[in-house]
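[stage:ingest] chain + small molecule (flavin mononucleotide)
[stage:ingest] validated
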Amino acid sequence: MKRILFIFLAAWFVFSIVLGVFYFPTGKSGSTSGEMSVLDAIYTRTSIRSYTDKAVEPEKIEQILRAGMSAPTARNQQPWAFVVIDDKSIMTQLADSLPYAKMLASAPVAIVVCGDLSKAIEGEGATYWIQDASAATENILLAAHGLGLGAVWTGAYPVMDRVRAIRDVLGLPPHIIPLNVIPMGYPDNVPAPKDKWKPENIRKNNWANAY
Ligand SMILES: Cc1cc2nc3c(=O)[nH]c(=O)nc-3n(C[C@H](O)[C@H](O)[C@H](O)COP(=O)(O)O)c2cc1C
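[stage:predict] done
[stage:export] tokens:
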């Protein structure tokens, strides 16, 4: 009997490893079956600007924010803040004041990715917050896509009219700088991802050598 149990457990172990379907009860692992691989998510992500009315589950928003905060940052400063918006009237006010973010009016939710200058590096690395918040933004876009949502990066900083408009609507203090606004929701239509592969953009070992 013990032998049968041992064989069964060993077979289950091998089966689990082969399929990569170990269950992680924290719910934070991305390795449960049915989820997109990292490369699939990267290659198939595209900007989504129209959404259905379906609400986005709060658990998904949290997973997306976790993905944002998992990004690398210079000296691990994490010089960011995220404003989640699901209030229709605020969404409409933002849509009205941002010329290239009109899709906000029909998005169920948006995340504003901000730099927090009180946490930024001083001196020469002072503007690393932009790269840090950009890395968080890309993680957010990929996580949204991986969870079946559509999203688009709409730029704010360094366009100061947009920064001021967002600051006014959201009541941001002076040390919080909005880098972008990311409307998101379940996609209404999904355009084909653009093929951006251009080997001519790559050099090998020295600028003189094509790839
Ligand atoms: C810094 C930045 C600012 C952007 N601003 C806007 C914007 O204001 N409105 C918009 O609709 N899309 C905006 N986009 C999205 C780009 O238009 C989009 O990423 C680009 O056309 C490539 O398409 P893809 O995301 O589908 O690959 C922005 C993207 C970046 C990285």
